[in-house]
Amino acid sequence: MTQSLANALGVSPLALNTPDIDSYLGLMHTLFTLEDRYGLTIETRDGEVLFRVDPRKGKEAARLNEMVYSWAPMMEKYRAGEISKEEYDNWRYNYPRDDKSQIWARVPNAKLMEDMT
């Protein structure tokens, strides 16, 4: 059925499935979705391929851009030897709990708030 739908739309069936990021093709389609939904862009500069988030692509892109900007300083600290691989990994595995660059707030569940009124 997916193949028939993909043929009708003129797209790869991989573009219609939940991508398997453990495969290169699945990862590519994930990147394409990130481009469409979150403003991820790709460019070449000085012979290198770079990804960046264009915050002008919408609200989701702007939010992702803020989050990526909190990641970059941690990566720079790790590269500079200011923090260990273990500290860097701990930050990533516990994100956003240990992120000090942004103010994080827990937002109550909308259904719970509705039930309380």
* Strand element count: 2
Strand order of the largest sheet: 1-2
Give the class from helix and strand content and strand pairing. Answer: mainly alpha
Tell me the span between the first and last alpha carbons: 45 Å
Strand fraction band? 5-15%
Strand count, sense and barrel status of the largest sheet are: 2 strands, antiparallel
Percent helix, as a range, is: 40-55%
Note poorly predicted spans: none
User: Rg from C-alpha positions?
Assistant: 19 Å
How would you characterize the overall build of this protein?
The protein has helices spanning 2-9, 24-38, 59-79, 85-93, 110-116, and strands spanning 40-45, 48-53. Helix 3 (59-79) packs antiparallel against helix 4. Strand 1 (40-45) and strand 2 (48-53) form a beta hairpin. Helices cover 51% and strands 10% of the residues. The protein contains 5 helices and 2 strands. It is mainly α and 117 residues long. The chain has a two-stranded antiparallel ribbon with strand order 1-2.
